[in-house]
Every structure is written in C-alpha cells, then in structure tokens.
Amino acid sequence: MLQESSEAIAGNIDILTEILLRLPPKPLGKFKSVSKQWLALISDPKFCHSHTLRHHPLPSALLLSSFYFPSPYFDLVSITTDSVLRVPPFDYLNAPRVSILQSCNGLLLCSSALVGDKEIRYSCSSNPYIDHCDSVVFDDNRGFRYFVCNPTTTQFATVSFPNKKFGDNIISLSLAFDPLRSPYYKIVSIRDITEGNEFVINVYSSYTGSWSDPDVCFTPPRGLAYYAPAYINDAPAYFNGAPVYFNGAILWLWSSDYEGKNSLYFDVESQCLNKLPMPPGMKFGTLDYFGECGGHCHMVVTEKPRTHFNILELKEDFSGWFVRYRVDLTPMQVAFPELTWDDEDAKHPFAVLGVFQQPREQDSKVVVLVNGTAMCFNLATHASRKLSDLCEAAGDVLAYDWRDAFLYFENLTYVIGFPISSCSLFWLLELPTFLYPFIRICGL
C-alpha cells in the first residue's frame, strides 16, 4: 500500500510540487539529485519564486566580509544559534579576492579585485590573496568584476556593461531586489562622465537584460556617501558603507563635516531622485549603523554615554526619522563582566553589526561586537546572549563594523542567467524517512 501511494505521489507533479514547496531551502538543494524530474522542478524559476513567497525568510545570520582585513574566509555568524562558521570564499564565482558590496533580500552583490593597479588600496604586491593578476581580463580599468549571487543555491550572474567606457566610469553599484514585488532584480549604477560634479544613473533590469537609456543626470550634495568597492585616488565621493534598498528605493547617506540636512534616494521604478532628510543634529563621525531588515530601514547615531544609543527608523514615505528603540547595554555589562568596556582610546567600546526588527516584537534584537565578541541583545526583554568570538587579538574591538556585516538569508531565489549545476549524492544520508519510497521509485 505504501509503495502504491508513493508511486502515485511521485507520478503526480502537482502533489509533488506541493510537498516540496513546504520544505525549507537547504534540503531542496540536495533533492535536485533524486531524479531529472526533481532537478527540473526545483530548478524551475517559477517554483523558486513560489517557494520564496511561501517562506519569505527572515535573515538567519550575518556574513562578515572586510575589505581592509583581507582573509581567505568569511565569518558566518548565526543569530538563531550560538555558532560561527569560517566559510570559504565564493569559489563558484571562479574569481579571486571576492568582497561583498551589498546584501538585498537574499541576493548578494559582490566584486572581485583582480589587479594590482596603483589606485587600488590592496595591490598584488601587498595582498597575498591575489595571484597572477596581470593575466586576467577585467571588466573596468580599476580591476573589478561584479557578480549577483545567491549563496544558498550558488547561482550567480556576472554583471556586464554596454561597453568598456561605461564600466570605466562607474563609481557605485547598488542592488535592488524584493521578491514580494518581483522575481527580477535591478542594478543601479552611478557614473562620473564629466570633469565637473555631475553624475549619471543607469538601471539594469534582469527582466529585460539591458541597461536603461537615457541617463538620469544629477549633481549630488557635498558629502554624499556612495559605496565604492575600494579607495580610488580620484574617487569624487566619500566611502561610507553600502547604500540601502528600502521600499522600492536606493538610499544614500549624507555623511561629512559639511552642514547638510538632506541626502538623496532614488526611486528605482520611476527612476526619480528625491531628497532624503537626515536626522536632526547628525554630524560626521556619529553614524554607527545604516541598514534594512524586514521592511524597516534603521540608523544608529551614537554620542554618549558609551553604552547608550538610539535606533532610528525611517518613515515609509521617506519624510523623516523617529526613535524606534532606546538601547541601554548596561544589562549586558552586568551579565558578561568578562567583556572589556573601558577602552578609553575608542569613542565607543562596541560596534553595531546588525539590527533585526522582527514581526514579533519580542524577537527583535541588535547584534553588537564587544572586544572581539559578537553579542546579541534582545530589544524587548533586554536579555543578552553570546554568539561567538570573532577576533583573535585581544582588544581588536573594531575588526568588523556595520560596513562589513551583511544579512544572510536561506532562500531559493533564482538568479537570472545562471546555468543549472549538478549536485553530489552525499545528501542521501540526511534525507527524511518519508522520502525514501520516492528514492526507491527513482532507482537510487
């Protein structure tokens, strides 16, 4: 009877689809090797999008990637368990020296610094992780290649430009993706095409497979912070972390000693630039976090005392900021006296790595790095939990900060333009028992 039922289910694509849609992303990657039918079903973009919409995962970890402390590995810090994994770089990209530029709802925008050009901070001569760089063909004259990838499925697409001149002038790339809006992603580029202070914006759509035309031209306010993949000697903008995708727009921050009250945000759909008000009293050097999670855009601006700070949230209509959380880390000091909080040389004895505002308020948390230790602080209960030790050197408090921390999602989001790859069969030992009849039917 069980054999007949299993055969009936395995032969009914609709029932099989409903079963697989209810499983989490990780085992589905292994199930692709069950049969050609399962491979085709799980790899189908429509199935991947339906699975993402059904599960709509929240971030489960922080992926730490620092451009200034190059390492052959990344730290994957779980926010649900007390663990940290040293994960290898993105080998499947087949590119050396990969850095993460932005995380956006399950997809990552990455760059690969491939040459030892004098304008790149880390050259081949000083970076042991770059090999044979002068034999590689590059996408722009600064030696960068760009990728959009899904670290769960290892699918990726290489970002291509209309022509070489287009790539040569890029000073910033941003990723715009929201599976609740569309299964397709967009890439927003800022290019410097004049000797003055005028820039242009172009948008790439994975739906059309092309870059927008005509350009969107603008003159930015002084001190506007873009994300450049490295310090470029002639870069016209100040490096201050990745831009943020929020509510259909790319947000950039004003962050300099100029007295500016507004920054800019770019509506990706309408391709219009608008003013983004900054919090009152914001000054250069007070920004300690800028990010998005679960449809909420947050900013942390700290002054004193050292263990107190406010988490600001941006209104959905971009009209201003309000205080979402008032944080006092004194309970963490008391619960973990072994942590060092008295570094008088630093403005703050900790770094904010991530703000996780969850659907249930009691699950919302902030992750901070204290003296090389990643700590989780519950914003509702004020309970503290140690996640992991990240820095080997004692007192190396700011080996990572918010610019190096990227949200990690487990999801099946399909990256357009990537060929399907095969999987090994080691997963058979980990299959749930209720799937064994299907495997026998497939002859495995």
Structure in words:
The protein has a domain of 190 residues. The longest helix has 11 residues. The chain contains 8 helices and 26 strands. The strands form 6 sheets. Strands 8, 9, 10, 11 and 12 form a 5-stranded antiparallel sheet that branches. Strands 13, 14, 15, 16 and 17 form a 5-stranded antiparallel sheet that branches. It has a 4-stranded antiparallel sheet with strand order 3-2-1-26, with no helix packed on it. It is an alpha+beta fold and 444 residues long.
Number of strands: 26
Strand content: 25-35%
Unreliable stretches covering 5 or more consecutive residues: 115-138, 228-240, 393-398, 418-444
The helix/strand class is: alpha+beta
Computed CA radius of gyration, to the nearest angstrom: 23 Å
Helicity level: 10-25%
Distance between the termini: 20 Å
Biggest β-sheet strands, sense, barrel: 5 strands, antiparallel
- The whole-number mean of residue pLDDT values reads 75
Shape descriptor: globular
Helix segment tally = 8
Protein name: F-box protein
InterPro entries: At3g26010-like (IPR055290), F-box-like_dom_sf (IPR036047), F-box_dom (IPR001810)
Pfam families: F-box
Organism: Senna tora
